[in-house]
Amino acid sequence: MSKSYKVAVLSGDGIGPEVMAEALKVLDAVQAKFDVSFERTFANVGGIAIDEDGQALPEKTVDVCKASDAILFGSVGGPKWETLPPDEQPERGALLPLRKIFGLFCNLRPAIIFPALTGASSLKEEVIAGGFNILVVRELTGGIYFAEPKGIEGEGGARTGFDTMKYSDAEVERISHVAFQAARKRGSKVCSIDKANVLSTSVLWREVVERVAKEYPDVELSHMYVDNAAMQLVKWPKQFDVMVTKNMFGDILSDAAAMLTGSIGMLPSASLDANSKGMYEPIHGSAPDIAGKGVANPLATILSVAMMLRYSLDYATLADKIEHAVGRVLDQGLRTPDIMADGCREVGTVEMGEAVLGELSA
Ligand code: NAD
Question: Which of 92, 266, 324, 358 would you label with 81, given CA atoms 20 to 30 Å apart?
Fold first, then answer.
């Protein structure tokens, strides 16, 4: 019998609705060709929600997300809402509450460079020839960004600012399991990034990761200090399969890894809860500078659909098909302006989406 899933679609602002439209066509194509269906419910988020419902994350949007198996998110924000108090602005007022309400403790950030796009990377051709595929697994709800106490004490020129870095056994255990399970679906290698030579939280982190690793004898575990990891990422990214790390290190390393691929318009992400329900979104923002021009790259959002199929809906084979279709379109030389190169053909958002559809339906 055909399986049916509920998907909350939160397109947001700027280029969000443009790239989401192409991603949903891909979902249509998957539905038409394979024995699965996706019931979508659209809901406002970000600036459009502020304009139409009075807040960045309306109650009814939360209800739609609660009733869904997965959330597809476009992008939020723009100059129109930048003068609002920080907590009411689109990103802070929608993204952080969504993570909190749905317990999205785990952020998966793939940094994939397709062989056809190696020219877009800032690294030398010989370092990245053939492409690379790294998955950064970042703890998202703990560590120094959230632990208490934090604040600024004192007055005048004698103030002290302080934050607390804290991790419990349970927090490290659950993120470690996600990393080992993801590695099993990929290259079977996990590199845990810490600073165990200096930080007590990292000593505990390393002990717990090693304990969890015993449950995954088929996955190879290594450890690396975060400063060395930053160097190795730039020097020889192909050595990594899955990198697992705490909130702050993951924040920095995932952005560095993403930029090695050369284009923000190519990269998807997932944020998961303990039951693999997740929110899937491109890593880019609402790109107000190109919104409405029909030139935004839809591939990050299309690849977010692939991640949704892989991680929340357990359809790895369909995810593979979408990723291969994207690879073939790039091999044909089709490029949106952000990834344009000599000898390629420039296309807009819709033509790029349709090319992926063509490959999927072939
Ligand atoms: P941005 O990611 O929107 O844009 C950065 C640059 O990359 C711009 O030049 C843009 O044109 C380009 N770009 C981004 N996505 C692209 C795509 N798919 N195709 C082609 N080019 C693309 O970051 P920003 O300019 O710092 O932020 C703009 C707005 O987005 C701000 O309001 C910010 O708060 C918001 N933002 C939202 C999210 C989110 O929704 N998750 C993330 C980051 C920024």
Answer: 266
DSSP for 270-334, please give it: EEE-TTS-EEEEESS---TTTTTTT----HHHHHHHHHHHHHTS--HHHHHHHHHHHHHHHHTTE
Ligand 1 site, residue 359, Cβ cutoff 6 A: no
Q: Is 17 in the pocket of ligand 1 (CB under 6 A)?
A: no
Closest by CA position to 38, among listed 61, 8, 76: 8
Cα separation, 348 vs 112, in Å, equals: 22
Q: What CA–CA distance (Å, rounded) separates 332 from 346?
A: 11
289 CB under 6 A from ligand 1?
A: yes
Residue 224 β-bridge partners: 193
Q: Give residue 138's pLDDT band: very low, low, confident or very high (50, 70, 90).
A: very high
pLDDT in tens, 290-326: 999 999 999 999 999 999 999 899 898 999 999 999 9
Neighbours of 188 (CB within 10 A): 14
Q: Is the dihedral of CA 309, 314, 318, 321 positive or negative?
A: positive
- Residue having the nearest C-alpha atom to atom 23 of ligand 1: 285
Three-state secondary structure call for residue 358: helix
What pTM did the predictor assign?
A: 0.91
- Chain-centroid distance of CA 93 in Å reads 19
- Measured in degrees and rounded to the nearest 5, phi and psi for residue 93 equal -80, -15
Enumerate residues 6+ apart whose C-beta is below 8 A from 289: none
pLDDT-based confidence at 96, cuts 50/70/90?
confident
pLDDT of res. 1: 60
Nearest CA to ligand 1 atom 44: 285
Q: Tell me if the bond preceding 149 is cis, omega within 30° of 0.
A: yes
Pairing mode, strands 268-272 and 36-42: unpaired
